[in-house]
Amino acid sequence: MFARCMSRVSILIIFVVATASFALPQTDNWLGGSGNWNNAADWSAGVPVSTSDVLIYSGGADYVLRNFRVVINSLTLGGAPDGFRSELEDSMGTLQGLHIANALNIGQTGYLNLDFGSNVTAGADSSNSGSFWFSQGATVSITGNLLNSGFLFTNFSGGNTLNISGGLTNSGSVYVPGGGNTVNISGGLTNSGTVLVAGGGGVGSSAKMSTLTNSGEFDVSVSSTAKITGDVLNDGQLSTGTQGGGGDTLNIGGTLTNNQTVSLASYGDVANMTTLLNNGTVMVAASAKLVVGTGVAGGPGYYQFANGTLGEFINMTNFGVITVDPAPVSLDGTLTVLLQNGYNPAVGSTFEFLLFNPGALSGTFASIQNDIFNGGTEKWVVVYNDAGGYVELVAASVTPEPASLLLLGSGLLTIGFGVRRRLLK
């Protein structure tokens, strides 16, 4: 009897524990106005707990002061424009934590301010179309992807970290100024807005990602570094040093395909890659350095090494141009000519694709790929004009080999003889 009772009690305990462990999330709404997070009367279901789906968007002005560590299931802050702002902010001077098991979604009226070494973690794909500020050594970690169409900003105080285990898609603004900031994106960055990674106080910031697809503005300034382990596709403005400071690095592990503008603008800026495919404009300012391939480059200028490849796009309306301000140009490796859309330039057409100060050139391309075109009737000739300060491609006729001409002539004689015989019959 006792054993059966104990068994039933055990089953009941297991059932209660299991029920508690799998408790369903519940919505908990902020009721509006200003107040502290831990004031139960300001919430529709009391102070949020770990299973709470929290909504701070009352239809009026919302200001919530988070003054202790918070663990919740999800957070939606703000929404569509309604003339008011929904704000969640750290208590001044207190290190806080905001841990979200699932998504963090900040609407257009949302404003999240993270301060004083606090941290936010979100366990699922998240989004921001409002304003997200973090500063003074704060850390933001997103498990999944982040979609940003709003304003994502690290304060000038520096020392902040943004970790995204998926990809970042940005059509808004991502500003990372101040020294010692770190951005880690395990996936790729797709940018159609503005991204700025900058240092401050003599300390640079850094960003690392697997790929970069840019149709907006991407800039690294003030002794900062961007490392892209894979390929970069640029259909916008890709630059270093536009904010001053110099000493910036754009490190590309794969191929840079440029269809618009690449600019190395400041003293000591460096961009390096294995392959550059250029269909736009690349500008290397005085005291900056562009390196294609692997090798030891000297001072400023353009350096292409034996394992480097420069791909030159040419079509009916434009072609890629690299301009190097007063600095050396050293050539080696491969030049690949990439004619587009079936375009075959007329014999004698010229394309000055590398411009520099007269007398700055050394070396030549070791090999030319795709040098025969237009059905084998034309070829590319590379002209190295050191005195004139340019390297150009010239479209020339392919002259048949003498043996080929002899065979061709014999064939014509045979054909002529055959025709004559038919006419005489």
**Mean pLDDT over the residues:** 89
Number of helices: 2
Structural domain tally = 1
Helix content: 10-25%
Categorize the overall geometry: elongated
Main sheet summary: 17 strands, mixed
Alpha-beta content class: mainly beta
Instruction: Please indicate the percent range of residues in DSSP E strands (runs of 2 or more).
Output: 35-45%
Unreliable sequence segments: 1-6, 11-21, 403-425
Give the radius of gyration. 31 Å
Head-to-tail CA distance between termini: 126 Å
What's the β-strand tally?
46
Q: Which helices and strands, and how do they pair?
A:
Layout: H1 2-21, E1 26-29, E2 33-36, E3 52-56, E4 62-66, E5 70-72, E6 74-77, E7 86-90, E8 97-100, E9 104-106, E10 110-114, E11 119-122, E12 126-128, E13 131-134, E14 139-142, E15 146-148, E16 151-154, E17 161-164, E18 168-170, E19 173-176, E20 182-185, E21 189-191, E22 194-198, E23 206-209, E24 212-214, E25 217-221, E26 225-228, E27 232-234, E28 237-240, E29 249-252, E30 255-258, E31 261-264, E32 270-273, E33 275-278, E34 281-284, E35 289-292, E36 301-304, E37 309-314, E38 321-324, E39 329-331, E40 334-339, E41 350-355, E42 361-363, E43 367-369, E44 372-373, E45 378-385, E46 390-397, H2 402-424
Parallel strand pairs: 1-3, 2-4, 3-6, 4-7, 5-8, 6-9, 7-10, 8-11, 9-12, 10-13, 11-14, 12-15, 13-16, 14-17, 15-18, 16-19, 17-20, 18-21, 19-22, 20-23, 21-24, 22-25, 23-26, 24-27, 25-28, 26-29, 27-30, 28-31, 29-32, 30-33, 31-34, 32-35, 33-37, 34-38, 35-36, 36-39, 37-40, 38-41, 39-42, 40-43
Antiparallel strand pairs: 41-46, 44-45, 45-46
